[in-house]
Structures are given as structure tokens and as C-alpha cells.
Amino acid sequence: MLDTILFAIATFFWLSYVPIAALSLYKLIKNRNLFVEKDLRRIRNDPAIIFQITTRSATKTPVVKRGISSIIDSAHQVNFHNYQISVVTDDSQDVKTLEDNKCEVVVVDKEFRTNAIKKGRALQYAVEHRRLSGKNTSKYWVFHMDDESYVTSQTLLALLKFIREGKGIASEGPIFYPLKFESANRLTAIAESIRPYACYDCVSQMTNPPPLHMHGSNLLVRSDIEDDIAWQFGPTLAEDQMFGFKVYEKYGPGSMGWHGGILLEQPPLNLKDHFFQRRRWVLGTLQNLRKFPRLHRYKLMFKSVTYFLGFASAVASMAYTVHTYLPFLLSFQELNNKINSEVFSLPAKFSGLSLDSLAHLAATASPVEVGIGTLLLFTSLVWLASYQLGLFLNLRYSKIGWAKRMMLHVQTLVLCPIIGLVETFPAFWATIEYQIHKKQRAEKVPVYDFYVVSK
After folding, report:
1. Taking the C-alpha atoms of 422, 427, 433 and 434 in order, what is their torsion angle to the nearest 10 degrees?
2. Looking at residue 19, which CATH number applies to its domain?
3. pTM (2 decimals)?
4. How many domains in the chain?
């Protein structure tokens, strides 16, 4: 009786994923040729680009220097010189730490006051700093990066092409996560596979805005537009989401685009970082909801509910699996006998398997059972394939050998049920937390340092 109830609950939640799976598959097919910009040639348009790395401390986060070097090396490879690197930091020690690097160090004044919090505060300070130096004009573009962001020559050529073609004033590109892949917790590294797959949805949102979310890194925006929109959105943990909507709201659909330049980053190195990163995303979205118009708010609510239902589905599926197979696991002898019987009966099973037997099985099932089974198979395949494709994209830009890559794909397939729990639990927790504390309290809850956690 219990297994029937658990199966029914799991089936319900998996069926709720059908429209999401269908939509994600459609966007994958639709945007496959736009995802990564490939038709790249060096044409001497050379606009001025400011590469801005926003960090809490480059002294405590050595990968910032790696990001600076990646910009310099990539610019040299494509013979691009009209750029500058600006490191925006809260740590005054960074002036000395980065004194031998080709960059400007902008230390956020401790006395600086704005209604923005955390990263938004640093971003706003950078805007006002550029304003004083006369760089908030249409001649300058700002490319936003995080601590661990790594630029390639493809990134630069894609940015130059987007600016040259004049298809928008703000744009984004895909982010892959191969850096420090083997140093990260295996579960968090594999869980990051879902993010490149989600970027196929980002293409649609940027080319057909308003976007439901935006990356805070790999964001290219014209400097005068950033000055106009600014980052003073109040106490929100998802300032990038608000920025994207405000650009669309003021400048219209043609203001946004997709530059297709790849940015490389790293996954959260441990489960704690992973949890607080995902929690921050959801809390930020919930904080922003009341600031959006009704239709956009409903879209975001639907997206948030899918996270919530994803955790419920994972729990129900896990409970059903454990309840069904735990008796065998607890009885080694019974399990051993079952394995032996299965092995020795394989020839008979294969000899009896035919198109007639399959047709008989389909004929004895009701249309409803066949329909539900087909839908469950579809959602399962899309879900599993999303992690496999995302992992492929992440590993494609890593130095991991092919044999180990294949092993990681197998591990991902086996660990997907656990990864589903790891990925959706923070969203589930944040939603409950926000509802308990309501909006005022949610804006005051301690949030793990956004700079330390990979975006």
C-alpha cells in the first residue's frame, strides 16, 4: 500500500515537469546555433572595453590574478589593445597585492552610502567612480566578471563582434565551469552541469526579453546605460536580475542581445558554498518579486515553483526507491540469490524477448498507463540528458583526459538522483525560510559571502 502511495506521489511530481522539459528541449534545439558564437574574425573596430572584476578581496582570493592574466593573454592573442582592467574591491590591501598587475584597483570607500547591499553596493560605487573619470559614455563598454572568471580569445572576439554589429546595449554569453573541477566536491562539480544547459534558455530570454534572470558575470553593457540604470535597487541579493529587467523596461526589446562569448568559471568547491549560492539566488528572486509587473512576477513565481516541486519530486522518488529495494539491501543472502537467479535467467529472458511479447505488453496496458509511462520516460530522459550535455560542455574546456571524462559521465548518470536533491534542496529551504520570516526578515537574514561563492 505504501509503495503505491509513494509511486503515485512521485508520478504526480514528475508529470508536473513535463511542460518544463518540453520547453527546455525546444529551446535547446532552437538556440543550438546561437549558443556559442563561432563566426569570428578580427576586424579593427576596437571599441574601448573596461573589464571589471568585482571582488571582496583579491588578496584573499588569488584566482583574481588568474582572471587578470587571462584578459591580458587573450587580448595579446587577438591583438586588441583598447582596453583596461578595473578590479573593484572592498579590501584596501589589494592595492599592494595587485601593484605589479596591469590593472586599476578601485577600493570601495567604507563611508560610501547607497540603498544597494553587498555586491550591488560595490557595483554602484564603480559606476560613480567611472562617472568622475568621464568614462560613462557611449564610447565605453563594461564587461563584468567575478573572482574566478577566465577570459579566452573567443570571448574577446565575440564581444568585439557584438559591439561592431550594434545589436544591443546589454548582452550575455554562456558560462562553463571547468576550472578547479577536480578540486571541487564531486557532487557540487557534477551539479554544476545543469548550468550550461540552462544557458540555452538564457539565449531566448536575452533575444526575446524581458529576462527572468541574468548572470552577474559575462555581462557586457554600454557604460552610459549602466550609469543610467545604476544598481540602486534596494536590499536585494539578485541585483543582476533587477538590472536586466530595468534595461528592458527603459530601452525596450531591442536593447538586449546575446554575444555568445564563452566565459570560464569554477563550481562551488564544497557543499556549503553550493547551498548558500543557490539559496541566495532564490531569496534574491523572492525579494524582487514585488518590484516586477504582474505578468513578469507570475513567470518568476512559476520558475520558483519548479525548483520547489523538483525537490518534492526527488524526495518522493528517493522514498519510493528506498522502500522498494531496501529489503533486498538488508538481506545480503536474498540479494545474492536474486542476482544469481537474474544472471542465470538472462539467456532465457533474451530468447523470450520479441516484438510479439512487447506488442502483447503494450496491448494489455490501458491507454492511460501507456500515456503516463511515455510522459515519465520523456521527462526522465530530458532530465538525465541535461546533466550529460552540461557536463560535456564543462569538461570540453578542461584538461581532464578522455578516460576520466567518460568515468565522470557514468558517475553523473548514477548519481543523478542524489544530485537532484543537492541541487533543489537550497531552493526548497529558501522558499520555506522566506515564507516564515516574510519579506522584512528575509532581507536581514545572514547570507554567505557572495564573493567567495562561485556565481
Report:
1. 170
2. 3.90.550.10
3. 0.86
4. 1
